[in-house]
Amino acid sequence: MVEFTIHPPPSDGHDSIRDRVEDSWALREAARLEGALLMACVAFAAAARRALPDVKGDRAQFIGLLGLYRPNRLEVEYRGELRSFEDLLYTWVRCELVHVAGLPVDIGWITGPSPKDLIVRAGGPPQYRLLMSPGWIDFLLSIATTYTQPDE
User: Fold this and answer.
1) Which is nearest to 107 in space by CA: 138, 78, 140, 76?
2) What is the pLDDT along the chain (152 residues), one digit of tens a residue?
3) Cβ contact 60:48 at 8 Å
4) Which burial class, exposed, middle or buried, applies to 87 when counting CB atoms under 10 A from its CB (0-12, 13-18, 19+)?
5) Is residue 116 part of a domain?
6) Is there a domain that residue 10 lies in?
7) Between the CA atoms of 73, 77, 82 and 88, what dihedral angle is there, to the nearest 10 degrees?
8) Per the domain annotation, does 117 fall within a domain?
9) Domain tally for the chain?
10) What is the extent of the structural domain holding 140?
């Protein structure tokens, strides 16, 4: 088990994490889920850097912070391989949104569940799509918000 030291946010009066959280909420309310997820991933990555500065690398910080809040290991089948959900969220969601500007064609959304439900479903034939609930956006934002500065 890796030990992490959590550091408090700096007190410079401005908080870009809060800005990205608010951007994500605005996109979520406009039903722009990919944009909301991208901003949630950006806010979460910044929170991970703030919380775990001693951990080297964006990926390790992102997955490390997610692991602190999701202690139960969740694995899903994606593209024929069993992957941890943390790795899938970083590699196939966050990186694709940042570097390709969209989710892979075989990742989509589950519609209908409660907005706060955390659901992931690996689909079988004929589509073989991995589906996520929008609750994952809220989950990332709730963690990122923990690392924002208090209002002055």
Assistant:
1) 78
2) 445 455 455 555 458 999 999 999 999 999 999 999 999 999 999 999 999 999 999 999 999 999 998 768 889 889 888 999 999 999 999 999 999 999 999 999 987 668 778 888 887 777 789 999 999 999 999 999 998 876 54
3) no
4) middle
5) no
6) no
7) -60
8) no
9) 1
10) 16-102+136-146
